[in-house]
Amino acid sequence: MHKDVQALLKSKNRCLSQLISVTEDALTTTMGNLGSKALLDPEYSDNLPVFDQSRAAIFNTIELVDREINQQIAKIAPHTQPTSREREELRALVNEQKSLIESLQALDSRLLEILDNAIRSGQREVSQQIQQREKLNRFKSQATPETGEELDQKL
After folding, report:
1. Residue 107: phi, psi to the nearest 5?
2. Long-range Cβ contacts of 133-139 (<8 Å, 24+ apart)
3. In a domain, 147, yes or no
4. pTM exceeds 0.85, yes or no
5. What burial class does residue 111 get, using C-beta atoms within 10 Å of its C-beta: 0-12 exposed, 13-18 middle, 19+ buried?
6. pLDDT tens digits, residue range 83-119?
7. Domain that holds residue 11
8. I need a surface site. Which of 94, 123, 149, 155 has the fewest CB within 10 A?
9. How many beta carbons lie within 10 A of that of residue 114, not counting itself?
10. In degrees rounded to 5, what are phi and psi of residue 87?
11. 117 and 35 in contact (C-beta within 8 Å)?
12. Domain count within the chain
């Protein structure tokens, strides 16, 4: 039974490594080259749903593996103890898992920072466009009484 748990932990660590790889690819290829502009650029914006789908699939797999790990642990008899070698292997796998999760958290923090910058940049652009539109409308409203139909009527 302990071997089954070890195999499942190895599988989970492979999933975490794959998740890190997918996140690194997104950060370096698309967002790394263009920063937050990549999220606003139609040429690159299609990558975000693909990235989300890839991550969601990996997270679903991790959930299944976690469920299976819990089931395997529940099957182990309480008086059954792992050998010292098995204990060390399990400890090493758990430590590797912790390290992978910390790496993933760091990558996700960078990703969230990029997304936050993209949102702020988009908000600034929208705000600037609104201000420009308001200036243009004020200019038009000030210029209209002196031109157009009223001027024609005066003539």
Report:
1. -65, -45
2. none
3. no
4. no
5. middle
6. 899 899 999 999 999 999 999 999 999 888 887 887 8
7. 2-120
8. 155
9. 21
10. -60, -45
11. yes
12. 1
